[in-house]
Amino acid sequence: MALTLRAQVAAAIRAHGIEIYPNECCGALIGRDGVVEEAFGLPNTTEEGPRRRFMVRPQDYRAAEGRATELGLDLMGFYHTHPDHPARPSQYDLDHAWPFFSYVILAVHSGVPQDMTSWLLQEDRAAFTEEPLIEELLPQDTLSPSGHAAP
Ligand SMILES: [Zn+2]
């Protein structure tokens, strides 16, 4: 199984990560059949402070599910950023993850987006398994005769 992000979804996650840097941002992944159609940003506030954002509270979960229902799609997982850390799950991430969801992690170094990865919790919850992450290209990427992405 691979997770596919629409081009605008990947762009929205990067934009959110840049905006919230040096804090962690977090949001929901909404789509269907392995394709994420919307990145639904969640508020950057927790009792522990904004730097340690990756904790999906019950009200966040309900908001994300409500948005998915509104779009006629499914809640597929969550994304968050690792400011100045690699795009690999932490012990904290493992302790707060649920099975069956995809967890997308974007590394942001000095305010610049780097690697983006996706992870699934193993059934025994002991660890994550990385899943292939596919980013769709913007239409102009494929049409551009120079082969360069539009700015
Ligand atoms: Zn994390």
Question: What would your notes on this structure say?
Answer:
With 151 residues, the chain is an alpha/beta fold. The protein has one domain: 3-Layer(aba) Sandwich (Cytidine Deaminase, domain 2). Helices cover 25% and strands 34% of the residues. It contains 4 helices and 8 strands. The protein has helices spanning 7-20, 58-71, 91-95, 139-143; strands at 3-5, 26-32, 35-41, 74-83, 102-109, 112-121, 128-131, 133-135. The protein has an 8-stranded mixed β-sheet. Strand 5 (102-109) and strand 6 form a beta hairpin. The protein is globular and about 35 Å long. The termini are far apart. It binds zinc ion (ZN). Zinc ion is lined by residues 54, 80, 82, 89-90, 93, 105.
